[in-house]
Amino acid sequence: MSNNKSKSEIESFDPEVYASIQKELTRERNNLELIASENFPSTAVLEAQGSLLQNKYAEGYPRRRYYGGCEFVDQIEELAIERACKLFGAEHVNVQPLSGVPANMAAYFALAKFGDTIMGLALPHGGHLSHGHKVSFSGRWFNIVHYQVDPKTELIDYDVLLKLAREEHPKIIVAGASAYPRTIRFDKFREICDDVGAYLVTDISHIAGLVAAGVHPSPVPYADIVTTTTHKTLRGPRSAMIMCKEKWAKNVDRWVFPGIHGGPHMHTIAAKAVCFKEAAQPEFKEYQKQIIRNAKTLEVEFTKLGYRLVAGGTDTHLLLVDLRNKNITGKDAEEFLGRAGITVNRNTIPYDPQSPFVTSGMRIGVPAVTTRGMRESEMKKICELINEVLMNPEDKKIVDKAAKDVKELCGAFPIYASL
Ligand code: DSN
Predict the structure, then answer these.
(1) Which atom of ligand 1 is nearest to the CA of 101?
(2) Distance from the CA of 65 to the center of ligand 1, in angstroms?
C-alpha cells in the first residue's frame, strides 16, 4: 500500500513494471504506429478491460452458469451479445473467445472433424497462420489445401478458386486475410461454397471495423460462421468473437465453452460491449471512412515515389509495399524506420523470393494514426518521412531530423492525455 497519495498503487509497489508501462505509453504517444493490426482503443474500453470484473468466474452462458454470483456479469454479456448482433446484423454471437486463433479453432470444429479438408489463403499470399499453416493447429489437425493470389494481379482469382474447390471437395473454405489490401468478395466465396457443398467461414479480424461501418462488404449474410478479433479496425479490447447463423449457434457455443475455453474473461467482455456501443455511433462510421481516405492517400503518394504496391493499391486500411525495386528488404525497412520512431512490420509479398524472416515487403496500416485524428495531409507527410528514412538509412542527420518530425507530428495529435 502506498502512503504517497500522488502515486498510483502500481507505481509505489512495483516501480519496475510501472516504469515499463510508462515507457510504452511514451512510445505510443510519440511514435507513428503503422502496424495494420494495431489501434488505440478509448480509455472507456481500457477502463472496462482493467476493471474488477476480471475477478469473476462465469463458466457457461448468461443464465446458464456453473457459478453463483453471476447476475451482473450476465447483464454485461447479454448487452455485449445484443449490441454485436445489432452492429453486424448477425443471427447469433458468441463474445467469449479469448483471441482470434481460438475463435477460428472453435469455428472449424463447429463445422468439421479432425482430418477434414479446409481451404484457406496461403500465409505468404496474405492469409493467416490459423488458416492452415503447417506450424499452426489448423495445418496439423486438418487436411489443408491452400489457395493463392494470381501471380499477375495479386488478387484472389475466383475462377481458379472454384476449379481448385471442385478438385479438392473441402468441408470448409476460409475467406479472410491479414495482409490482403483489396476487397474480399464474400458473395463469390458463397457461390463457390454452394457449388462444391462446402461451409464458408470468414475471418474478418482485420476489416471488422470497416464492415461494421459499411465501408467493406459484410460477410454476415453469406457465411456460415464469421470470426473476428475485436482490437484491430474495430478498436476494442484485445479479444475476439464469433458470429453465425442460428443453425450453428449450439455447435459454436459448445465448441467455445466447454470445447476449448474455460472461464470467460468478463472484464474483456465488458470492454467488448463498450466497443460495440462506440462502433454504433455516427463518429465511428466517419472514422472508418477516413481510414479508407488515408490509405488511398498513401497509395497515391507511395506510387508517385516509385514504390510498387502489391495488388496495385488498396481498398482497405492497409497497403503492402514491395521493396524489391528499392533494394531494401522488409526486415531492413522495419529496422530503419524504427530508428525514426515509425513502426511498421516486415511482411512477405505474394511469391516472395525472401524468407518469411527477411521478406521483400512492408505492411502499412492506418487505423492507429487515423484514431489520432490524422488525415490526408498528414498521410502525405508520413509518406515523405518514410521515403527519406528508407533512402538514407545511414545518414544520421536525416534520420534524426525525421525522428524529430515524427515526434512533432505525434505531438500535434495527442493520445491518452488522461493516462
Ligand atoms: N498477427 C496479426 C496481424 O498482425 O495481422 C493477426 O493475428
Answers:
(1) 7
(2) 32
282-412 classified as CATH 1.10.10.60: no
Q: What is the location of CATH 3.40.640.10 in the chain?
A: 48-279
Q: Exposed, middle or buried: residue 52 (CB in 10 Å: 0-12, 13-18, 19+)?
A: exposed
pLDDT of residue 5: 59
Q: Which atom of ligand 1 is the closest one to the Cα of 178?
A: 5
pLDDT digits (tens, 9 = 90+) for 353-364: 999 999 999 999
Instruction: Give distance in angstroms: CA of 37 to centre of ligand 1.
Output: 6
Best residue for ligand 1 mutational test, from 37, 104, 138, 228 (most atoms within 8 Å of Cβ): 37
DSSP code of residue 142: S
Angle at 117 between CA 112 and CA 119, to 5 degrees: 105
Does the beta carbon of 178 lie inside 6 Å of ligand 1?
A: yes
For 48-279, give the CATH class: alpha beta
Q: How far apart are CA 172 and CA 342, in angstroms?
A: 39
Cβ partners under 8 Å of residue 27, min gap 6: none
Q: Where are the domain boundaries for CATH 3.90.1150.10 in the chain? A: 282-412
Residue nearest to atom 4 of ligand 1 (CA): 37
3-class DSSP state of 392: coil
User: Which residues, in sequence order, are CB contacts of 412 under 8 Å at separation 6+?
Assistant: none
Q: What is the pLDDT of residues 295-313, one digit of tens each?
A: 999 999 999 999 999 999 9
Contacts made by residues 296-301, CB under 8 angstroms, sequence distance 24+: 297/376, 297/379, 297/380, 297/383, 298/364, 298/366, 298/379, 298/382, 298/383, 301/379, 301/380, 301/383, 301/384
Measured from the CA of 179, which atom of ligand 1 is nearest?
A: 5
Residues designated catalytic: 57, 59, 203, 229, 232, 238
Written as nine digits, the cell of 17 is 513494471
Cα of 379 from ligand 1 centre, angstroms:
23
Closest C-alpha residue for ligand 1 atom 6: 178
What's this model's pTM, rounded to 2 decimal places? 0.97
Return the residue whose CA atom lies nearest to atom 3 of ligand 1: 37
d(CA 275, CA 291): 18
Place of cell 482470434: 100
